[in-house]
Design goal:
289 residues; mainly alpha; 2 domains; two-stranded antiparallel ribbon; 69% helix; globular
Length: 289
């Protein structure tokens, strides 16, 4: 709302400034030549300036409308979502954050980054399949090269030599939810899952995708799998303690702030993947956006 109001104030001030400038020009002409007609040159200049201002205001309003559209998502189950938001909030502050802080003090940052690299390397099947489904074969090849290099020369993925200057295979991030977005599937409505966190109808497909394509999911018995996943979450949280707190402190309504931040982030990921898709898609293949 603050951003919208400030934009409106800017537009009004722009219109007032334009009107004042036109009024001043008219007054100057009348003072210089009383009873004479306006100069054709000044008349053309005034009309072109007014047209330019209208075009500028139209472009600003159009961009404002696009920005508002990117931050909008249906929320028909808001009472349930708010309840799950409160549950996850308590879970974070009462359990996850204290455990992550203790882990942070015991394990050096370098070791925690290596653990994150290891689990990221295990997520190769999800990213690789998603890129193939997007027909983004260049990114799929990059992902395959990263996995091979990091697994062999990166000691099972603990290190990330593929991102070095010699190979320059940058890290990539995609999933099945982004894949559906590239093909034009909308977000649906907003959902906050217990433990998992914010999502949408479309992005909830990633929950199933992660289960079937993530090797950790096949660890038996089930409590061993749960322990490994919990350790991964604690390790990741220890590397970004304070991010969630900053979001809550800066927001009037933390739930709305989290919802808007999540949707904006996911839409940017889809748009970024879609623009790359246009450059890598073979001729004759058209993707709906």
């Amino acid at each position: 709302m603050v951003a919208s109001n400030s934009e409106q104030i800017f537009l009004k001030s722009k219109e007032t400034e334009s009107e004042n400038e036109l009024s001043d020009d008219k007054g100057d002409l009348e003072d210089d030549s009383v009873g004479s007609s306006k100069s054709p040159e000044m008349s053309v200049k005034s009309e072109s300036g007014d047209a330019g201002d209208k075009e500028y205001l139209s472009n600003v309003a159009e961009e404002e409308g696009k920005e508002e559209e990117t931050l909008t998502i249906a929320d028909p189950i808001e009472p349930f979502n708010r309840a799950m938001f409160q549950f996850n909030d308590k879970l974070y502050f009462w359990i996850l954050k204290p455990v992550a802080q203790g882990y942070n003090k015991v394990v050096p940052e370098g070791a925690r980054v290596s653990v994150k690299n290891f689990f990221s390397n295990l997520g190769f099947p999800m990213r690789f399949v998603s890129f193939l489904l997007q027909a983004d074969f260049s990114s799929a090849a990059t992902e395959l090269g990263r996995f091979a290099v990091n697994t062999i020369w990166g000691i099972g993925g603990l290190l990330d030599p593929s991102s070095g200057k010699e190979l320059n295979l940058a890290k990539q991030d995609t999933d099945l939810g982004i894949t559906l977005g590239v093909y034009g599937v909308g977000q649906g409505f907003f959902i906050v899952w217990p433990v998992v966190g914010p999502s949408s109808v479309r992005d909830s497909v990633e929950i199933a995708g992660e289960y079937f394509l993530y090797p950790v999911s096949y660890i038996n018995p089930w409590y061993a799998w749960l322990g490994v996943r919990s350790y991964e979450v604690v390790n990741d949280t220890s590397l970004r303690i304070g991010d969630y707190e900053s979001l809550k402190e800066a927001a009037i309504d933390p739930y709305v702030a989290l919802r808007n931040a999540y949707i904006q982030y996911r839409q940017k990921k889809v748009k970024g993947t879609g623009s790359k898709q246009d450059q890598t898609t073979p001729a004759g293949v058209m993707l709906e956006k």
